[in-house]
Every structure is written in structure tokens, then in C-alpha cells.
Specification:
Low-confidence stretches: none
Radius of gyration: 13 Å
Strand content: 35-45%
Oligomer: single chain
Mean pLDDT: 80
Shape: elongated
Largest sheet: 3 strands, antiparallel
């Protein structure tokens, strides 16, 4: 399960950035953790498909 943050991080006329939050399972304990990354909007969809 993954989602994009509602608000985009934008500065001027540069590329827009989004915060991607993805739930991943720990190989050691089996517990679920949340991995957060700030990516350019164009690469966010690629990251979520993996």
C-alpha cells in the first residue's frame, strides 16, 4: 500500500516534488515500516510501481 502526499513541495518554477510514503515489510522481524522519500513528481509513479 502506498500513497502520494496531498500537498506538493514546490519552489518557484522548478520541478515539483512530492513526498512518497510506502509500507514495507522488514526482512528481520516481519513487522511493517513506512519508507518516506521526497522525489520529483515525474519519478514518483515509477517508484510506486516497484
Amino acid at each position: 500500500m502506498a500513497k502520494k502526499a496531498v500537498a506538493t513541495l514546490q519552489t518557484g518554477e522548478r520541478e515539483k516534488f512530492v513526498k512518497v510514503i510506502k509500507m514495507v515489510k522488514s526482512p528481520k522481524t516481519g513487522a511493517y515500516m513506512f519508507a518516506e522519500e521526497i522525489l520529483p513528481q515525474s519519478k514518483a509513479d515509477e517508484k510506486l510501481k516497484k
